[in-house]
Design a protein that fits this description.
single chain, about 80 residues, mainly alpha, 3 helices, about 90% helix, elongated
């Protein structure tokens, strides 16, 4: 169960990320994902089964968002610096 939750988060979150980035902006969505990652790590380290699963879900969602958006952010900024 613990290894399935992040995969399900990737599957459900990845198609929605581009819409979020268009609506709120690339940097804002990545920043929110990093905040979510922080809270997921904190939740996962608390001594409870419920917080373990909640933390893993938050971490999976945050990594799914960053996995989709960070390459385009790097490509956009790297191209601007090279030109």
């Amino acid at each position: 169960m613990l290894t399935t939750i992040p995969l399900l988060a990737f599957a459900f979150m990845s198609p929605l990320v581009s819409r979020l980035a268009r609506h709120y902006g690339l940097e804002h969505v990545v920043f929110a994902a990093l905040i979510c990652l922080f809270f997921g790590i904190v939740c996962r380290s608390l001594p409870s089964t419920g917080t373990l699963f909640t933390g893993i879900l938050l971490i999976g969602l945050a990594i799914a968002v960053c996995n989709v958006l960070i390459p385009s952010l790097v490509k956009r900024d790297l191209v601007q610096k090279l030109v």
